[in-house]
TrEMBL record:
Keyword annotations: Lyase, Pyridoxal phosphate
Class of enzymatic activity (EC top level): lyase
Superkingdom of origin: Bacteria
Name of the protein this chain belongs to: Threonine synthase
Biological process according to GO: threonine biosynthetic process
The keyword Manganese is assigned to this record: no
E.C. number: 4.2.3.1
GO molecular function: threonine synthase activity
Modification N6-(pyridoxal phosphate)lysine occurs at: 112
Domain (Threonine synthase N-terminal): residue spans on this chain: 2-80
Residue ranges constituting the Tryptophan synthase beta chain-like PALP domain according to the UniProt record: 95-341
């Protein structure tokens, strides 16, 4: 297995190199040169694996044998040892048609932990093996930052800087990121929104001299390893459901911002997992819903919502999907991405759009519908959804069909987003790990929205001991 860029100008590279490159050096996104298809007999064997064993089985198709088995195994077990549920990502039955895949049992109570705890291990491993300095740089709409910091705080050879949009993350998200006291962590609170933060990160990664001289490494879902780690729970959830129901195929409903998590589901499907529809749930920032329903990919006005981790207009993983839907034609991707830069939109139609609509459903959930969904499931099922998971469930309900099962991804614990829960008139009990955050001291640096200011802070941070 080797890796290439969606824009066609990165030579075939190995797994560790792809991990370290993050964004493709030609500005594209890295993808495997060939997606492995898992034989049905192997899928059957995988049904009996534990979560950790399944990670190892899936990764074995992608790592090129570059990491000795016992090292990979140690990293995988260490990554998930911090999870509060022995199953790592347990599946809960809500009713005959709906199951929830709980992805929030990691240290920072959101699904980002599943990939980022592993990536933290892998960065630490590469730093030690190659005797390298690694400076992780990322943008967060709230959850990635906390999780990535948790994965590498205090680790030898590693520094991490996270940009978050000032005042646009939830209180608990902010506290999780900024109450970490290790000196290898820098939080920049940026005037602007997540798209501004992500654009700056992409600009810095596209400046190859800056990237190389500052040892930059990526944790956002531009990094293929993050996607790969997330494909595992689609397999795991599928196996849990078919064991309980004798169903042959399931749909997945996925609360989406950067198209990262749902792209992992698409990859699982391409690998041969019997997935029916992938239902894409957005909030009012619904560029992806409009793309799927109309074929027009065009950012609208930014809105702050009850589900801030999905307040994203420009979805960086979208390019990966576009690459596959257009038949892996990198020349066309280059043309479309140039056009997007120049004209601010991409339009597809005809056969390509039909293909998109055969694979995906989409529903943009408005604020009131999100809160109503939280209230309804709390009252009728005694299950408290966080506002992101509620978008997924609302979309699953919209596509509900008597004879099908949908697994909706529960991407965060409700305690992270009490702002929305309070609006539902629901009082929740905070887990101790979250309530204790409120007493801790915060450390963050406020910066204006210009790249120059961000670069100045980064240089200060990298030059400090
Ligand atoms: C990041 C995040 C999402 C969106 O995931 P993408 O990979 O950006 O599509 C959804 N829910 C929560 C809680 C998140 O933190």
């Amino acid at each position: 297995m080797e890796y290439i860029s969606t824009r066609g100008n990165v030579g075939k590279i190995g797994f560790i190199d792809a991990f370290m490159m993050g964004l493709g050096n030609d500005g594209g996104l890295l993808v495997p040169n060939e997606i492995p298809v898992i034989p049905a007999a192997t899928l059957k064997e995988w049904q009996e694996l534990s979560y950790q064993e399944l990670v190892l089985a899936i990764f074995s198709y992608f790592t090129n044998g570059e990491i000795p088995d016992e090292d990979l195994k140690a990293m995988v077990y260490a990554s998930y040892s911090t999870f509060r549920d022995p199953e790592v990502t347990p599946v809960r039955r809500i009713n005959d048609q709906l199951y929830l895949l709980e992805l929030f049992h990691g240290p920072t109570f959101a699904f980002k932990d599943i990939a980022l705890q592993f990536m933290g291990q892998l960065y630490t491993y590469v730093a030690a093996k190659q005797n390298k300095k690694i400076h992780i740089l990322g943008a967060t709409s709230g959850d990635t930052g906390a999780s990535a910091i948790e994965g590498v705080k205090g680790k030898e050879g590693i520094k991490i800087c996270i940009l978050h949009p000032h005042g646009k993350v939830s209180k608990v998200q902010e506290l999780q990121m900024t109450t970490v006291k290790e000196d290898n962590v820098l939080n920049l609170s940026v005037d602007g929104n997540f798209d501004d933060c992500q654009r700056m990160i992409k600009d810095l990664f596209a400046d190859l001299d800056f990237k190389a001289s500052n040892h930059l490494a990526a944790i956002n879902s531009i990094n293929f390893v993050r996607i790969l780690a997330q494909t595992v729970y689609y397999f795991y959830a599928y196996f849990q459901v078919v064991k309980q129901t004798d169903e042959k195929q399931v749909n997945f409903s996925v609360p989406t911002g950067n198209f990262g998590d749902i792209f992992a589901g698409y990859l699982a499907k391409r690998m041969g997992l019997p997935v029916g529809k992938l239902i894409l749930a957005t909030n009012e920032n619904n560029i992806l819903e409009r793309f799927i329903l109309e074929g027009v990919y065009k950012p609208g006005d930014f809105r702050s919502t009850y589900s801030p981790s999905m307040d994203i207009q420009v979805a960086s993983n979208f390019e990966r999907y576009l690459y596959y839907v257009l038949g892996e034609d990198s020349a066309q991707i280059r043309k479309l991405m140039d056009q997007f830069k120049a004209e601010g939109q991409i339009v597809i139609s005809g056969e390509a759009l039909s293909k998109v609509q055969a694979e995906f459903g989409a529903h943009g959930v408005q604020g009131q519908e999100c809160l109503d969904t939280i209230k309804k499931y709390e009252a009728e099922n005694g299950y408290l959804l966080d506002p992101h998971s509620a978008c997924g469930v609302a979309a699953a309900d919209k596509y509900k069909n008597e004879n099908e099962i949908t697994v909706s991804l529960a991407t965060a614990h409700p305690a992270k987003f009490n702002e929305a829960i309070e609006l539902c008139g629901i009082e929740q009990q905070f887990p101790e790990q979250i309530s204790s955050l409120f007493e801790k001291e915060q450390r963050q640096t406020r910066v204006g929205g210009s790249l120059t200011e961000v670069v100045r802070e980064l240089e200060k941070f990298y030059n400090a001991r």
